[in-house]
Structures are given as structure tokens and as C-alpha cells.
Fold this protein.
Amino acid sequence: MRPHVELIQEDDYVWHAAELPAGEGRASERRLSVDEEDGSSSLRVDFHTDWGRGPGIHHANTEYYVLDGQIDYGGRKIGKGGYVYAPKGVPTDYLKIAEGTRLLHYREYGDAGFDPVESLGGARSWAEAREEVIVIDSEAMNWDAVPNPGPMPGLFIKYLHVDPVTGFYTRLVHAQEGWSDHRLAHHPCYEEAYTTQGLMEYNFGTLDLGTYFFRPARVKHGHFTTMEGGATWLLRSDGELANWYTQREWVRWGGDGVNYGPAGLQEEPHPPVRWSHSTHDLATPWRSDEDMRQMTASWQFQIDQGQDNSAVKHQGTGADPSLIAILKAMDAANLQGGHGGHDHSHDHAHDHAHDESATPDWGFSGREVEHPDERTGTHAHNWGTRVDWKDGDPIPAPIISSLPVRSRSRGRWDGDGM
């Protein structure tokens, strides 16, 4: 399983000698994301000389996408936007890559292994191999409207590869300027993207040229706004990207610092210092007026379509939803116990005393929302693994990851408020 990476600007990665066995030439790679269990990886590769290797068989489902430069697959030359998909265990033709080429290189369900063959015609596929080699000039393709673009139109797609069995797919996605989604989402599959053009903002940071994320299944993310010129990225998922939305989200944690505080270490006896992390404790308006305008427009579009949506507000402002939830739970407990005849519902916009002896029971909902194999399946030890979900199955609970692994993320937003 790969770790959650969000966001990382590719300039924050170090260069390594590219792992391209059986090839001749010199190249360097940035390892955007690596699965140490099966060798899967997402790489940014620069070629310092002409490079090439003859026909052979890859040990992983392998993809090449040209950012700049030129590749030659079996005599077909493609420049920027060129895409080659070489399935695991399937014989592939020779590949030549021109000096100065920059590309994205992906390996899935296997490592960099490559078995050269004498000729393409005499090579046999592995017994378990399926699919065929795909070669595409994506620059010559038309953009299609995304069937389910979120709350409003404005997303467009170019399908590069779709696995008919697993639903794994690679595609280019473009969000036009002003496209927004005011909700958080989680998915049954992983999602990764590399930004090839433009600027988008969301709760984990700024998606601009060269930024990358790898988000395991079920991790919540969202609050998208698209800035001038729109944004384009190459996006991959290891299954169909079902969207499960959340609104009025909140996360709050805290505790008592017994030997530390804002001033530093405090070893001498002292009253514990409250220490917490929440947008309501750390609130600084990081969303611009344009962010709020776009998210409000997204919300309004849903309202106009007859959807039940919560109004958008700047995270960390207004009534704290975590406290409202606690007060409502206390009300429920007090009503069960009589609460002195206080039997009306309210939204806690007014102040009144609550019985501190109440013991509100939040109840246990985990098993009601988890996937049937959550605790017994092969990957029960790792919640971030793809869920084999289909319509009618329970929706698996989200994974809250407010502060994922990342380097010097470019962006205004801090990832809190999930």
C-alpha cells in the first residue's frame, strides 16, 4: 500500500538514476509514490540522452505519458500528450525516447522488471496476461463532458485506458475556470493526480503545475475551486470512482498539555494547558473571496436542482459544528431524562444552561457504515486499500486525514477542517 501523499510539488523530490532495465541511455527519475509491497510506483522521468530498448515483457502494467519531447513505440512517433500502455506479461515492441523528453511513468501490480525478447513475433504472453498494448496521441483527442461532474457542469475528460475487469482507469481531466465543488468526498478506490496545467485550490492545498497527490481509498477531500485558465491533470484510480459526499464537516481534537505549553517545555508543576487543533481554534481566513464565490455558486446550483444542501461558510467561522453536535447529544440525553420539561428542539443559537450530570450517548455507528469485509477481509489491516464496492453495499466509513504526509506543499490551505 502506498502512503497518503498530499500535496507534494515535484521540485521537493530528489533525483535518482532511473530504473529502466535493459535500456541504453541515461535518465533520472523522481519517485512520486512507491508501494514497497508490490513495487508499484509513479515516477517523473527526465531523459538526458537518447534512450531505447528492444521488445520485451514488462513485469507490471506499465504506462508512459509524455509531458514534453517525443517517444517512438514500434515506429509510431508521438510528442507531447503521447501515451503508451503496456500490460503486464504482454510482449511489447521497441521503445525509443528522445533526449530532453520529460514524462510520467507508472508501474502497477509489479516492479520495474523487464524480460527482453528476440523478436515481437516470436514472444508469447504470460498465461495470466490480458489486455493489449495501447498507443494514443491524446493531443488529437476531443474533450468529453464528464458524466458525473460533481455539483455543477464544467469537468471534461479524455479516457486513456480503462481496465474492463477491475475498472482501473487512467484519464486526463480538465476543470474549466469557475468549476467548484463545495462538498467533501471519499471513494472506494485510490486516486492520484499530477497537475499538467493551471491552478485549483482545495482543502489540502494548491494544485498547480507539477504538484502531485496519492490519496488512498476512503480519505476525505474536497472544497474545490478552479482559478483563471482552469486546471488539467493526469488522474488514475484503481477502480470506478464512486463519490460519497459530506457537508458541514468538522474535526476537533484536543487535550491537556501537562509538561508543555505555547512557551515550550514546562517541567515544574503547573496546571495543564489546553492544547487543541481545530479550524475554530486556529481560524485564519485562508479562503479568498473568489473561493467563497465559487463554492457558493456550486451550492446554489445544487439548490436550483432541488438538492438538499447546506449553505457554504468559511471554515472556522460561525457556530462551531462540533460543539453544536455535542449540545444536541446532551439535549437528547436530557430529554430522555426529563430535562426539567425542556422539550423543544433548537439549534443552540441562544445561551442556556445544560445539566452537567447528563451522560449523552453518541451510540456506535461504525458497523452500520462499514463494508461487510471491513474486519475479516484480506486487507482488513489496511483501511486505505480499495473496497470492492457495488451498488447496494454499505458505504464504507471515511478515513479522516487532516495532515497527510507531505513536503513543502504549495498552497494557502492547511488541510484542517476535515
Remarks:
- The longest strand covers residues 221-237.
